[in-house]
Each structure stands twice: as structure tokens, then as C-alpha cells.
What does this fold into?
Amino acid sequence: MISLEAIKERLEGQFGSRLLDRADFRDEVTYAVAPGDWMEVLSFCRDDPQMAFDQLDCLVGDHLPERAAAPFQVVAHLVSHTHGQRLRIKTALAEDPTLPTVTNLWPSAGFDEREAWEMLGIAFEGHPDLRRLLTTEDFEGYPLRKDFPLRGTIGGRIRTELKGKI
Amino acid sequence: MSEPATSGPATSGYISSTGEPEPHGYSVEVPPLEHRPTLDELKERKARTRQNVETTGEILTVSMGPQHPSTHGVYRAVLDLDGEVVVDIRPEIGNLHRGVEKLSEERTYHQIIPITDRLDYLSSFAMNHGYCEAVEKLMGVEVPARARYIRTITSELCRLSNHIMWLGVHIMDLGTQTFFCICFRDREYILDLLEMLTGARLTHSFCRIGGVAKDLPDGFAHKCRKVVEFLPKRVAEYERIVKQNRIYYRRAKNVGIFTSEDCFAWRVTGPPLRAAGVVRDLRKDEPYAAYDEVNFDVAVEYNADVYDRFLVRMKEIRESCKIIEQCLDNLPDGPFLAKDSVHTMQLKKNVMRDAGAMIHDFYQVFHGPDAPKGEVYRATEVPKGEFGVYIRSDGGTKPARIHFTTPSFYHGQVLPAMARGEMLADVVAIFASIDVVLGDCDR
Amino acid sequence: MGITGSALVNPFDRGIQATGEDSLGGPVRLPGGFAMPVQIERILGFGRSFSFWPLLFGLACCAIEMMALGGSRFDMSRFGMEAMRASPRQADGMIVAGWCSTKMAPRVVRLYEQIPDPKWVLAMGSCAISGNIWDTYGVVQGVDSLIPVDVYVPGCPPRPEALWQGLEMIRDRIKQSRHAYDGLRRIPARDALTGGTGEA
It folds into this structure.
């Protein structure tokens, strides 16, 4: 068992200034990394025996329109069963966001990345099967972006196009 | 297996009184019951029980669902079959998608509670509870002791109801209608308790930020005690019917083996993870509510197959009964809702009598609770696995982004990895054993 | 599919508006101009009402209460309704139990159309009736915008007793041989496609 402090030290010792930001809030630690370092940091977190984050709890896409330079972000929540710790790593993305996939590290990211892609338009390079997951095939727009209307773009009571489906 | 299966009548079951399994017609030798397989043994057994899927035969594609009785709702699995062997599965979810996260971003923190009800509608309170724990962590609200105990009791009642319902449906999928009726008979007693407490059978919306909506009603403790006293006897009855049933044993034993490594990689949590020998229970590991003040054991089994997932759930029912009894014994006095006028609702009985309470109530209803800026993630152990809530707050009364990490979402994804190489008939058993609820899955 | 086309007249699709007769009386027209007496149809309806087999079609929370109605305490089999058919071809009607998402909408219409006539539909729960709290991009705001609904059972979810009452109301309609498409004779989802002409 390794404490969260030791994990912080280990990660900061390894990456140093490449960790752009650290936030401690309610006993949780969040690191921000550049999109280019995304893969490397996450691989290190999984493979290093002192980190051993063997489970990706979730991978969440997010939209922050008030942050004009980088309006998107992807947040990964990691769990280490060996050490019983949690870690959050996030990266900020510009318009037309792309990020390398982490399905080769944790297969469970498959659905997460598909969801982030269809809900926010964040493309994951190298994802084996990047299709729409929750919405219909002909759905237009990215529902979780803040400018998308809650009631959808089609309106009416049916809220989907039935032509060609029934 | 920690408990020898010799408790039932010696002549009726598949396992004889000596504990030796019946040898005929079963190609995989079953290890002695007390043996705990190591990870390597499990991997080897997994490789042995799965068929080779690298075949050149003709592939038949079958669409199972969304209108299919054993997909537990509207899950759709497109199966590629080579003869009777499953070569590949392509899951399709989203048939119950309704945009929970988008909707939650337009609601205040109080108004999200009823939405979380309808994520996993078989254990609504556990979902309420998980969400409220996350919001309390964000806002720094201290929950009074009595509320923590009431939450524990209600969460465990939900676990009981969920597991009993799961058992009935699981066995029905494997071909027995009668057992479904037995389970629903017992589930109704638990629903009666929940209805007495919360006023609803399924969608409770009973948790509040900083406590619960109501105190325990008169006579609840007495009724609840009676139910948790007879439920372990019922579990013994279930085990007598199911555990030693030769059909169930053959359809469940060594089917869908999924080792602890696989579980971590695919984020399989809850009973399937514990059936793989991992002592992982957030009630112990990251305690919340009153779980660190009661004694209970984490239910663990070691063979990582459908059969052991059943055993884990049966153990969990017994442990839940123990937890509820202890909570009823040690139930502290005091308020059941935090006195925190910035973040919690006021007691309704005060609202009409006290001007201050009325002002605060008005503020909470029309404005909402003010949250600090920051992001939190809180995971709780719901009956199906680990339910995490990620909230990013920009301040204000609504979350800027809220994400529900629901167990069924990942369990719906894992079916291909779990069932590839198994027989077609086993897909139903495997899918039932990981306990997917589509409302939870599709969000 | 289903109820359009004039050459094959469904004996139970009586065409109230066309003949101008009230919904309880009037002969049933069989192919060849033969008219079935009302009394015989009443007898058929009486018999049919005691063996209403709903489609085993659960969407969301309400489906759990539907299962509870089939379970031990409420015991739907007392009324000859326990035989829930998983195939629409064998069912007499449909209980839409839960919210109907946009992804599910074409499938609901297809399932409805695959049920042989005469058929009855019960919309169970607020989500199926009006969309409930899910006023979002992903949910059809009331399943009656897709298929004709006979009986609405409100609640979130309705108790099994409420569903039971709804099924009793369906039974009354069966006895009278009344369907939601009496007088309407069209499927709203197809109307939405064709702009209300009924020719789909």
C-alpha cells in the first residue's frame, strides 16, 4: 500500500514540469497534462509498479465554452487496486479535438471513448470501433456540448426522423 | 468455495454428500470444493472451457434483442455464430438513452435526485445515496448519524430486493418459471418495507442532500427485523433449490470465467469481481454512511464463473441482513437532516411555522444549493457494482458537468469478452450473471 | 402493413366512420359481403377478453411493476393474462411500459404492426404517456404519437393494482370490440411521415 502523497511524488518526479497543473480538492488530486503527454502519462500510471493503476474507472469528456483556447477536456479517473488509491488526470483540447485512444491500456475505455465521441465530438485516434453508441445512427450534433438544445434539434413529439426506419 | 455444499439432503442434488461432483458427461474436471484456484489456474481453466473461435466455418449472424425476453430490457447483441459456438458479439446499447447527463446540467442539485432514481430502477435508493454522497463531498456537508444509519438500512434493503429479483430472473432465463414466483413473493416483503419508509415501491427519491427525507415511521423497526430474520431462511431455501440443482450446476459451473485481471481491465465491479476472488467492496474500502460502524464480511468466491456469482449474491443477502440488524440495534437518536441552511432543504413541518425556515426553503427550491468551485468523484457500492458520480462545478446551483459512471454501462460492454468461445445457450446465463439493467446502462 | 387496403377487409376492423354506425353495433363485414351478426362478435369478444395475452415487452421501470403483477402477490394469471408472449405474432396487445427513446421508436412501431388484429395497447406510466421528466432530445414525448393507445395508466411507476385496473379497462374494450384505431384507422407514426394522408 502506497499513500497518495507517495504517488504524487512519484508522478511529479517522473514528469516534472510536464504536469501542467495540480489541483487538490476534497482529498482528491487532479493533474492536468498536455494532449501530447496523455498516452505517456497514462501508460506510466498503469505500468509503473509504484503506481499500478490497473483500472480505468471512467473517461469523461467535457465542454467548457468559456475557455476559448481549449474548450474541451477529457478526464480519466484511475483506480489502483494494489494501493487502494484514486487519481484523476485530465487534458485540455482545442477545437476539432483529437486524442490517442487508451483502449490498448484499458479495454473498458471502448464505450467511454465512443460516448465521448458521439456526445462531444472528441475523436480518439486508433479506436477500433468509433461508432455512435447511445443515439440513433442519423443523429446530428453533439448533445453534451453546451450549445446543443436540451430538447434536440428536430423538435415535435417524436424528436427523431422516422423516414426510412419504419 | 469456502462453504462445503453438503448442507442439503444427500440424495437430491448434483453434488453428492461427499462433496464430489458427478463425473458423467462433464468434460471439465471440477476441483475439490475447498480449493481456491490461483490466477494462473483460472486462466488455464478459462482457456480450456472456451472453444477455439479461429474457425474457417460458415458464420451465422443472429440478432438477439432488443425485443428478447432474456436481454433484461432492450439490450441488443449481434451474435456471430460458428455452429453453436459464439465467435463474436457486437453489443448495441442506447435503446433507453434519454440524456440524463444533459438533463442534469439544467437542474439544481436537489432536482437531480429523482433523475438518479431512474438510472438503476431496481435499486433506486442506492443510486440516490451515491449521488448524494458525491454532492455532500462537493459541498462539504456533514450528515447526521441517524441519517447515515437510515441510509445504510435503506441501501441494504435495496440490495436485498435487487439480488432477490436478480435471482428470480436469472433462474427464469435458465428455464424455470416457478422460481421467479418464489423470488417475487419474498421481494414483495422488502418492497412493503421500502414503501412504508419512502412511500414508493420502486422510485424512492428518499435521499436528500445532508440526510434523508423522513424519519423511520412507527413500527418500521419491528417489521424490518421480522423480514431480515426470515430472509436468511429463505436464502437457505433458494440454495436448496438452486445450488444443488443439477441443471443449474451444469449450466453455470465453469461458464463465463472472467479472472480478476480481466475484471480490472474491463472495469467489471461488484459481485462478478468478488466472484473472481478479489476482496473489493467500497463499503469496506472507501466507507461511507454507517458502513464503517457495522460488522460484516465481504462476500468472496474464487472460481469466477456464473455459479460463483450466484453464490456471492446469496452471501451478500445474508450480510445485508446482518448490516440491517446491526443498524436497527444501534440506531442513534438525533436529526435525520443536516441543519445547513445553505445546502439542505428544510423540514416541511417547520416551513409553515417558522419564517426563517420558510425563507430557506424558498431559497432552496427556487434558487438551489450553492456549491463551491471544484470537481469531485465519489464511488459507492450499489448492488450491481461501483457507481461513481463525477461532478465538475463552476460554483452556482447547477453542475457544470455531471457524469454517472454506472456499473451496467461497463457490464454491457463486457459481454463479448466474457462469452466469446462459449456456447450460444450460455450467452443468456452469462448475460444474466453480470446483472445489467438497461436504464443504468444507457443513461 | 396492417390495416390499409380495401380488398382484404379485416372482419374486426369495422370501419365505423365509413358505415356511420355506432361503435357498439353494426355488422362485421367479411370478405364477399357477408356480414357477421353483432351477437356473434360479442361472443367472440367475450371469449377473447378472458385470454388477453400481452406482448412481453418491457422498456424501463414500469416493466418491473409489470413483472410484479405477474408475480406471486398480484398474480395476473387469475385473469387469464399471465401468458405473456415474447413474439408479437402470438400476442393480442402491448403494454408499453417505460419511456420510448428515439432509438426504440421505430422498433415500437414495428412491434405494434406485427401484432395481428385485433390488438389493444396500454400505455403504462408517465413516460409512455407524455415523456415524464425526460423532455430531452432522446425520448419520444408520449408513445401515442407513434401508435394508437387504448388505455393510459398514469403513475411513475404505476402500482401493479393500477396496471391491473388498466387491463380490466382493456378487457371491457375487448368485450365491446372497440380498438383505439376504431374511427382513426391509422398509425400516428405513419401519419407523421405522410402528413396525415394515411397512405404509407
